[in-house]
């Protein structure tokens, strides 16, 4: 019985076809089983380098290219192209099974043959080659075969390697790229997901190779499954996972585990697949949680797409972390009365005045959150001994006693008035669940973990009993945009030995990522586990244009130019819903929406969940976390706006906090810029922000 497998490129081609043609392709391949039995045509391709490549008729003008095995029964759909292009594509290609990795590989032999002599000539006199430091043995062990080794041997810089991506076998290219980016052979090997060492690789067994190549080829059993894959051809993430992603999704961990990685490396994708994997096991409910409501909605939608079995889907609950905290709180204590920010400032002011304490309300509010609530400090004695890491301004014991008096008075005031803050609700909810013997969930999956505060962590820790696969954490500390710096160990989550890093960015182009990473150059970023995070080895799936940087004399000109830019994108065929616009402040966002609407561009505020439309999404940089857009405009990157002085603790008040604030704001701009999939536009008026000036 023949089986069909679909290669990633085929699905990409399919996504570009018009609806009628897509239906025709679905029709042809749904009938494939019958067709093969009836001897329907898989035509041989004349002058092919690989005589297993066949063409199949879609209609008068279009052909599919299929790999037909010499033995075995797996037929792999490789391309769908206009008639002549399909034949040319097939004539140039060679399909093989890598004897080290066991995976299916496709290479453009003609392009390799055509490029090699020229590269050899260019390299001629040069001693230093891109891979002179890597031994032949290491290359061989990574699955780089003779032909690719010969090619790699004449490369002198990484740009040549990048250009070769289109024609070298993908896995081998990735191995070379990892080495060129400074990874060790061991790191490359573990990233690319090596097959079990004892597995015998038969270079002619296409069936087995297809099963091993899950990141590029998906096997479908029957027409229903085929149609399911064809239903959303653009969402490749549902079907294909990179080996490094798949490894994390399917692993069995003896305790909490986590995945890190730069922007767009698929941490959210992994979190969703992981939740699906755990829910399928049927051992209990899975909580999928994250920091903001916008992201929780997008996780909800992603899971609806990914999980087709309603019984499995029912086992997954998506709630943002505060929603979960409030839910637990309400069940026990009813509806909380919330302290407003203005009331909070007023209360601190009163307390400080009464005690004649010469510190600001902001200082007290931060001290209370970051020291007292974060470490669950119960009394003055404990406060004297509390760690104040990251708080910068040192306090002697006399000062601590005074500060504690203020905190104590403030806390008593809240209790008397029956007032709660999100943080005290989180702490209360964590205590409620901590005491419960019956936990609400069997697994917790956390996305955008870098921004959760200690009480949110305690709450999530308490939501599941300590067990295998209990907590799964996805996050990137380069994208931390709130104040909280925590150590996972301190909140009862030990991920030692259960941590993986993703390095291939699927979202953004190499140009946008490189430019954005420059903004973080030289910054020391922690890894939430006592070490520091690295950006070594990040690379992108695609290339594109450089970010556009635009300077204007005044704000009016800058905003008008934004409308023109958005109009240019729309005229070029980008859907308004694929465009994101961001600025640092709420008021700038409001003005930008008005400005776009004045230019007859449909635009809506991301903050307004009711207003969701197919128009351009406009939101603050904080709102942009976790989202992505084909074209992204980051506006108002002007000095005194990015960062706004109000967000930065004055250096004379507290140097350490000042530096942390600056880093957090820098990361915020980094997050905003890395939301772009294809094009990034950055503008300012007057003097640009220091963050931009540095990378201009
Ligand atoms: N295996 C894959 N195949 C195809 N596309 C993928 C794959 N993994 C991720 N993507 C795509 O890459 C983009 C980024 O993925 P995702 O949002 O999961 O990354 P992330 O690491 O969570 O990003 P960030 O930290 O910047 O928010 C998405 O469009 C996603 O669909």
UniProtKB/TrEMBL annotation:
<dbReference type="InterPro" id="IPR000212">
    <property type="entry name" value="DNA_helicase_UvrD/REP"/>
</dbReference>
<keyword id="KW-0378">Hydrolase</keyword>
<dbReference type="InterPro" id="IPR014017">
    <property type="entry name" value="DNA_helicase_UvrD-like_C"/>
</dbReference>
<protein>
    <recommendedName>
        <fullName>DNA 3'-5' helicase</fullName>
        <ecNumber>5.6.2.4</ecNumber>
    </recommendedName>
</protein>
<dbReference type="GO" id="GO:0043138">
    <property type="term" value="F:3'-5' DNA helicase activity"/>
</dbReference>
<keyword id="KW-0413">Isomerase</keyword>
<feature type="domain" description="UvrD-like helicase ATP-binding">
    <location>
        <begin position="240"/>
        <end position="509"/>
    </location>
</feature>
<dbReference type="GO" id="GO:0000725">
    <property type="term" value="P:recombinational repair"/>
</dbReference>
<dbReference type="GO" id="GO:0003677">
    <property type="term" value="F:DNA binding"/>
</dbReference>
<keyword id="KW-0547">Nucleotide-binding</keyword>
<dbReference type="InterPro" id="IPR027417">
    <property type="entry name" value="P-loop_NTPase"/>
</dbReference>
<dbReference type="Pfam" id="PF00580">
    <property type="entry name" value="UvrD-helicase"/>
</dbReference>
<keyword id="KW-0347">Helicase</keyword>
<dbReference type="GO" id="GO:0005524">
    <property type="term" value="F:ATP binding"/>
</dbReference>
<dbReference type="Pfam" id="PF13361">
    <property type="entry name" value="UvrD_C"/>
</dbReference>
<keyword id="KW-0067">ATP-binding</keyword>
<dbReference type="GO" id="GO:0016887">
    <property type="term" value="F:ATP hydrolysis activity"/>
</dbReference>
<dbReference type="InterPro" id="IPR014016">
    <property type="entry name" value="UvrD-like_ATP-bd"/>
</dbReference>
<feature type="binding site">
    <location>
        <begin position="261"/>
        <end position="268"/>
    </location>
    <ligand>
        <name>ATP</name>
    </ligand>
</feature>
